Amino acid sequence: MTAFALGAKARAAGYRLRGFDAVGSTNCEALAAAASGDPGGIWFAALQQTAGRGRRGRQWSTPYGNLAATLLIIPDADASAAATLGFVAGVALNRALCQLLPETSIRIGVDGADGGGQSQGTRIALKWPNDVLADGAKLAGILLEAQKLDDGRHAIAIGCGVNALAAPDGLPYPATSLTELGTGRTAQQVFETLSDCWVEVFGLWADGRGTAQVLQYWREAAAGIGSPVAINQNGQIVRGIFETIDDTGRLIVRADNDARIAITAGDVHFGATASARS
């Protein structure tokens, strides 16, 4: 076992932790624990994943020294409310990384999304639906997976991957790491900060009753709101202006004819690169 530790707030809130040097997938570990009857409230954290996965079945590479962390929870909320936990994780991860990354001038990313969101002065921004950007390049990603339990409830595995030491090679999009951004923060330090930020934002969410407040915090940290956007939905391209996310977390695009289009899934590209990439 490697030297991961929970933050003080997470310990006080009763969270548990299993740390690994390397593991196949922290999400798989979490879902296996749920199937074995674990009540939830446990983190699985590793410095390397050998069989990690991302959104829509894609591979998620975790080179050694980066952070792969998954929280297993069994919320007292219906499925529609539980689906918004990705935004809870996004806000928590955004807060953690903002604390760890030095504040300097913001650079415009090659995808046309700067690091400021709507709150200027920070290099970190949230990209719909599940990425965290630094200076416009991908720094972290989030993956939610659900598993129905015998009693009818759903166990939720909330996976967070952060490029602490290095960004993976050969990606089709710009990526960066905390090392490249000029901070020597380790995966263990990122995890400890994240575990405390999670407690704060999850408390606001309050089994779905505080979803509106969490979504507002997400909007305030969002990349690309008010900018041109293209969304690739399995080869079908939707273009327009990224107007907002609605009260269920759908991306709202204003098309050229002023129609509002609600997007539930797809690959998002901003600015001038949207047409080229799509």
Automatic annotation (TrEMBL):
Alphabetized InterPro entries for the sequence: aa-tRNA-synth_II/BPL/LPL, Biotin_CoA_COase_ligase, BPL_C, BPL_LPL_catalytic, Transcriptional_repressor_C
Q: Which GO terms describe its molecular function?
A: ligase activity
* Top class in the EC scheme: ligase
UniProt-listed PROSITE patterns: BPL_LPL_CATALYTIC (PS51733)
Q: What is this protein called?
A: biotin--[biotin carboxyl-carrier protein] ligase
Q: Which UniProt keywords apply?
A: ATP-binding, Biotin, Ligase, Nucleotide-binding
Instruction: Please name the source species.
Output: Devosia rhodophyticola
Any Pfam family matching the protein: BPL_C
What region holds the BPL/LPL catalytic domain?
16-206
Q: What is its EC number?
A: 6.3.4.15
Residue ranges crossing the lipid bilayer per the database entry: none
Gene3D superfamilies, per database record: 2.30.30.100, Bira Bifunctional Protein, Domain 2 (3.30.930.10)
Q: Does the keyword section mention Ligase? A: yes
- Which lineage? Bacteria, Pseudomonadati, Pseudomonadota, Alphaproteobacteria, Hyphomicrobiales
Q: Catalysed reaction per UniProt?
A: biotin + L-lysyl-[protein] + ATP = N(6)-biotinyl-L-lysyl-[protein] + AMP + diphosphate + H(+)
